[in-house]
Protein backbone atom coordinates (compact mmCIF):
# COMPACT_ATOMS: atom_id res chain seq x y z
CA UNK A 1 0.00 0.00 0.00
CA UNK A 2 1.41 3.36 -0.97
CA UNK A 3 1.37 6.39 1.32
CA UNK A 4 -1.35 8.11 -0.73
CA UNK A 5 -3.68 5.09 -0.78
CA UNK A 6 -4.15 5.19 3.00
CA UNK A 7 -5.87 8.57 2.86
CA UNK A 8 -8.95 9.88 1.09
CA UNK A 9 -7.69 12.40 -1.50
CA UNK A 10 -9.22 15.86 -1.06
CA UNK A 11 -8.55 19.39 -2.27
CA UNK A 12 -8.90 22.79 -0.64
CA UNK A 13 -9.05 26.25 -2.20
CA UNK A 14 -7.07 29.27 -1.03
CA UNK A 15 -8.76 32.25 -2.67
CA UNK A 16 -8.14 35.91 -1.85
CA UNK A 17 -10.05 38.88 -3.23
CA UNK A 18 -8.48 42.12 -4.45
CA UNK A 19 -8.31 43.50 -0.89
CA UNK A 20 -6.63 40.38 0.52
CA UNK A 21 -9.68 38.87 2.21
CA UNK A 22 -9.77 35.06 2.32
CA UNK A 23 -12.73 32.96 1.21
CA UNK A 24 -13.99 30.64 3.96
CA UNK A 25 -16.98 28.34 4.35
CA UNK A 26 -18.78 27.32 7.52
CA UNK A 27 -18.87 23.53 7.53
CA UNK A 28 -22.37 22.09 7.52
CA UNK A 29 -21.22 18.49 8.01
CA UNK A 30 -18.55 16.59 9.91
CA UNK A 31 -15.66 16.80 10.21
CA UNK A 32 -15.72 20.30 11.64
CA UNK A 33 -19.47 20.99 11.53
CA UNK A 34 -20.17 24.60 12.56
CA UNK A 35 -16.54 25.68 12.18
CA UNK A 36 -14.97 27.75 9.42
CA UNK A 37 -12.56 26.27 6.91
CA UNK A 38 -11.30 26.54 3.36
CA UNK A 39 -13.77 25.39 0.73
CA UNK A 40 -13.03 22.03 -0.80
CA UNK A 41 -13.77 18.35 -0.64
CA UNK A 42 -13.08 14.88 -1.97
CA UNK A 43 -11.46 14.17 -5.30
CA UNK A 44 -13.92 11.93 -7.17
CA UNK A 45 -12.76 8.88 -9.16
CA UNK A 46 -11.43 9.96 -12.54
CA UNK A 47 -10.85 13.58 -11.45
CA UNK A 48 -7.52 15.30 -11.08
CA UNK A 49 -7.01 17.89 -8.36
CA UNK A 50 -7.77 20.83 -10.68
CA UNK A 51 -11.11 19.39 -11.79
CA UNK A 52 -12.05 18.57 -8.19
CA UNK A 53 -11.16 22.11 -7.09
CA UNK A 54 -13.31 23.69 -9.80
CA UNK A 55 -16.25 21.37 -8.99
CA UNK A 56 -16.03 21.76 -5.22
CA UNK A 57 -15.79 25.55 -5.42
CA UNK A 58 -18.87 25.70 -7.65
CA UNK A 59 -20.80 23.34 -5.34
CA UNK A 60 -19.83 24.97 -2.05
CA UNK A 61 -19.54 28.65 -2.98
CA UNK A 62 -21.22 29.22 -6.34
CA UNK A 63 -17.94 30.63 -7.66
CA UNK A 64 -16.03 29.68 -10.79
CA UNK A 65 -12.28 29.45 -10.22
CA UNK A 66 -9.07 28.98 -12.10
CA UNK A 67 -6.82 26.60 -10.10
CA UNK A 68 -3.33 27.85 -9.33
CA UNK A 69 -0.20 26.47 -7.68
CA UNK A 70 -0.16 23.86 -4.92
CA UNK A 71 0.51 25.57 -1.58
CA UNK A 72 0.68 22.63 0.81
CA UNK A 73 -0.88 19.39 1.97
CA UNK A 74 -2.32 18.46 5.36
CA UNK A 75 -3.38 15.12 6.81
CA UNK A 76 -6.53 15.29 8.92
CA UNK A 77 -7.78 11.93 10.11
CA UNK A 78 -8.38 9.80 7.02
CA UNK A 79 -8.16 12.80 4.66
CA UNK A 80 -5.15 14.02 2.66
CA UNK A 81 -6.02 17.60 1.66
CA UNK A 82 -3.96 19.25 -1.07
CA UNK A 83 -4.51 23.00 -0.86
CA UNK A 84 -4.15 25.21 -3.94
CA UNK A 85 -4.24 28.91 -4.62
CA UNK A 86 -7.06 29.75 -6.97
CA UNK A 87 -8.45 32.81 -8.70
CA UNK A 88 -12.16 33.56 -8.79
CA UNK A 89 -13.18 34.15 -12.41
CA UNK A 90 -16.97 34.27 -12.10
CA UNK A 91 -20.11 33.29 -10.25
CA UNK A 92 -21.94 34.72 -7.25
CA UNK A 93 -20.90 33.83 -3.70
CA UNK A 94 -23.61 31.60 -2.20
CA UNK A 95 -23.26 28.81 0.34
CA UNK A 96 -24.19 25.45 -1.14
CA UNK A 97 -23.63 21.70 -0.88
CA UNK A 98 -22.29 20.99 2.64
CA UNK A 99 -21.41 24.65 3.36
CA UNK A 100 -23.74 26.31 5.90
CA UNK A 101 -22.31 29.76 5.03
CA UNK A 102 -19.61 31.28 2.83
CA UNK A 103 -17.92 34.65 3.12
CA UNK A 104 -14.81 36.71 2.46
CA UNK A 105 -13.01 37.51 5.72
CA UNK A 106 -10.26 39.96 6.63
CA UNK A 107 -7.62 39.34 9.31
CA UNK A 108 -9.81 40.68 12.15
CA UNK A 109 -12.81 38.55 11.19
CA UNK A 110 -10.58 35.52 10.65
CA UNK A 111 -9.15 35.82 14.17
CA UNK A 112 -12.65 35.96 15.70
CA UNK A 113 -14.21 32.97 13.89
CA UNK A 114 -14.39 29.42 15.30
CA UNK A 115 -12.00 27.74 12.85
CA UNK A 116 -11.34 24.07 12.22
CA UNK A 117 -8.40 22.83 14.27
CA UNK A 118 -5.00 23.86 12.93
CA UNK A 119 -6.28 26.12 10.13
CA UNK A 120 -4.83 29.41 11.42
CA UNK A 121 -1.43 27.86 12.15
CA UNK A 122 -1.28 26.07 8.80
CA UNK A 123 -2.23 29.15 6.78
CA UNK A 124 0.24 31.27 8.76
CA UNK A 125 2.98 28.75 8.00
CA UNK A 126 2.13 28.96 4.31
CA UNK A 127 1.97 32.81 4.42
CA UNK A 128 -1.60 32.89 3.02
CA UNK A 129 -3.53 34.46 5.91
CA UNK A 130 -6.07 37.16 5.05
CA UNK A 131 -5.04 40.81 5.31
TrEMBL record:
Domain Nudix hydrolase residues, every copy: 5-129
Keywords from the named record: Hydrolase
Database matches in Gene3D superfamilies: Nucleoside Triphosphate Pyrophosphohydrolase
Matching InterPro entries: Nudix_hydrolase, NUDIX_hydrolase-like_dom_sf, NUDIX_hydrolase_CS, NUDIX_hydrolase_dom
Pfam short name (any one): NUDIX
Keyword Lyase: no
Domain of life: Bacteria
Cofactor: Mg(2+)
PANTHER family with a match to the protein in the record: GDP-MANNOSE MANNOSYL HYDROLASE, MUTT_NUDIX FAMILY PROTEIN
Entry's family note: Belongs to the Nudix hydrolase family.
Descriptive protein name: NUDIX domain-containing protein
Organism: Pseudonocardia yuanmonensis
